[in-house]
């Protein structure tokens, strides 16, 4: 396999290849693949590729399907003929598994390439083999159809993972040896743990670093550097399943370990406001967090002034904190309040420095880069903030307000404050909000 050779050896090998052989090699996956990207030996039912982002998991799945379906010639029969392709969403099934850069259409030589019929969610190979597209938002799509091969992509992100997986298993019943490949970045969900422990599962593990030569330098230099060593990085880059605090972005032990009695010299201080949509007793709180940037480059959470109150009351609380802490500015999230926030603050005091910020992503996605800073030991709580910390330790990557039963307004204000202090991009560079 070429990937196992040194750069100089690869160059020497390719220099001796004729043009005809070079055209053949373009689609000779075993020649190009890393050993981890090839199916393992043995009589397994499930090949679980558990790896970080950028490892090449999609290519693994697409090439495995191709090798299973295609014969030696375009019309030659392969080992399998009825394939289930299951992705997180219908769009992912189409855009990644079929039409993606490493998807099924891209990995086939022209003569072997299947015909894709989007309206029927179906691919048909020249030899008559077929594949159907399914998604984990509609598990009942898999109720009834039968298959002898399946490719399940990003299983750990499936919305209805249990129900979709069960229906897939009931239909995987054709042929002498039904098989399935699961390609996913890990999360500590029950179905993955069950698969790993299953004696009929062959597990391949890998990280983003394994495919470093094929990843953009900017990805390595900026994304990997930012998340390396953090819980999120260990999961998304190293492909680890972390059992300590499943799904949580923060944990109490780490918060306690980094807690400080005082902040020391501060170079900047901001007051962040995440306003509630209303002011009644049943409405959400308005998150108000004061945070500072230390001379040591670390972030310090100084005060939690969050409250459930009228706009006039939370406006006074924010402005009072601004002057008491000699803050540089007040940061306000305008998704809910719009121009009302600035109007409230300037009604209290027209001289305050104010900056509006607008959320383009969900709360959990915005929180992840800040959680990475905490895991790197660069954020400290000056004192204890029980209610804020309760929200932090309940915040998961797939946080759902309806399921959790609360809106993490204190966490959101903390995220805005620390993002302003520590994640503002240098001039001319885009700001990174998440992986």
Q: Which structural class is indicated by helix and strand composition?
A: alpha/beta
* Number of distinct helices: 18
The portion of residues forming beta strands comes to 15-25%
Strand order of the largest sheet: 3-4-5-2-6-7-1-8
CA radius of gyration? 26 Å
Largest sheet: 8 strands, mixed
Please give the number of β-strands.
14
Runs in which pLDDT lies below 50 for 5 or more consecutive residues are 426-435
**CATH class categorisation of the largest domain:** Alpha Beta
**Could you tell me how far the N terminus lies from the C terminus, measured between alpha carbons in angstroms?**
31 Å
How many structural domains are formed by the residues?
Answer: 3
CATH architecture identity of the largest domain? 3-Layer(aba) Sandwich
CATH H level of the largest domain: which superfamily?
P-loop containing nucleotide triphosphate hydrolases
CATH fold annotation of the largest domain = Rossmann fold
What is the global morphology?
Answer: elongated
Oligomer: single chain
Describe the structure.
- By secondary structure, the chain is α/β, with parallel strands linked by helices.
- The protein folds into three domains: 1-32, no CATH class; 34-227, P-loop containing nucleotide triphosphate hydrolases (Rossmann fold); 252-422, 2-Layer Sandwich (Nucleotidyltransferase, domain 5), CATH 3.30.420.
- Helix content is 36%, strand content 17%.
- The protein contains 18 helices and 14 strands.
- The protein has helices spanning 7-15, 19-25, 29-32, 57-69, 90-98, 104-107, 161-171, 190-197, 217-227, 231-236, 252-258, 311-324, 334-337, 339-348, 363-375, 386-394, 401-404, 409-422, and strands at residues 46-51, 82-87, 115-117, 122-124, 130-135, 149-153, 179-184, 201-206, 266-274, 287-294, 299-304, 329-333, 354-357, 379-381.
- The chain has an eight-stranded mixed β-sheet, with helices on both faces. Strands 13-12-9-10-11-14 form a six-stranded mixed β-sheet, with helices on both faces.
- Helix 12 (311-324) packs across helix 14 (339-348).
- The chain is elongated, with a radius of gyration of 26 Å.
- Residues 426-435 have low confidence and may be disordered.
């Amino acid at each position: 396999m070429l990937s196992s050779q040194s750069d100089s050896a690869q160059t020497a090998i390719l220099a001796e290849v004729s043009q005809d052989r070079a055209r053949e090699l373009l689609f000779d996956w075993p020649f190009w693949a890393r050993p981890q990207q090839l199916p393992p030996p043995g009589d397994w039912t499930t090949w679980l590729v558990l790896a970080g982002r950028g490892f090449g998991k999609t290519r693994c799945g697409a090439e495995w399907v191709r090798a299973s379906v295609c014969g030696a010639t375009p019309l030659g029969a392969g080992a399998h003929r009825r394939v289930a392709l299951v992705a997180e969403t219908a769009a992912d099934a189409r855009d990644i598994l079929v039409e993606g850069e490493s998807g099924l259409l891209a990995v086939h030589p022209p003569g072997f390439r299947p015909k894709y019929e989007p309206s029927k969610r179906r691919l048909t190979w020249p030899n008559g083999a077929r594949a159907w597209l399914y998604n984990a938002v509609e598990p009942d799509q898999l109720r009834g159809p039968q298959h002898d091969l399946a490719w399940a992509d990003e299983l750990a992100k499936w919305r209805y993972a249990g129900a979709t997986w069960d229906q897939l298993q009931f239909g995987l019943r054709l042929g002498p040896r039904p098989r399935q490949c699961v390609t996913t970045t890990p999360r500590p969900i029950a179905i993955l743990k069950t698969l790993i422990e299953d004696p009929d599962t062959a597990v391949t593990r890998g990280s983003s670093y394994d495919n470093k030569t094929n990843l953009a330098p900017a990805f390595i230099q900026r994304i990997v550097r930012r998340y390396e060593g953090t819980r999120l990085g260990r999961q998304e880059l190293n492909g680890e399943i972390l059992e300590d605090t499943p799904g949580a972005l923060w944990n109490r032990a780490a918060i306690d370990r980094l807690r400080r009695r005082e902040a020391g010299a501060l170079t900047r201080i901001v007051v962040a406001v995440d306003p509630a949509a209303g002011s009644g007793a049943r409405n959400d709180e308005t998150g108000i967090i004061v945070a500072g940037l230390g001379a040591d480059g670390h972030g310090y959470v100084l005060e939690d002034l969050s409250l459930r109150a009228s706009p006039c009351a939370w406006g006074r609380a924010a402005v009072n904190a601004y002057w008491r802490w000699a803050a540089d500015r007040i940061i306000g999230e305008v998704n809910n309040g719009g121009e009302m926030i600035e109007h409230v603050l300037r009604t209290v005091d027209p001289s305050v420095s104010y900056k509006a910020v607008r959320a383009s992503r969900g709360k959990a996605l915005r929180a992840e880069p800040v959680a990475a800073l905490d895991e790197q030991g660069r954020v400290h709580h000056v004192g204890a903030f029980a209610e804020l910390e309760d929200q932090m330790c309940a915040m998961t990557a797939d946080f759902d307000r309806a399921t959790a039963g609360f809106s993490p307004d204190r966490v959101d204000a903390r995220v805005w404050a620390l993002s302003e202090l520590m994640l503002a991009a240098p001039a001319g560079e885009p700001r990174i909000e998440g992986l």
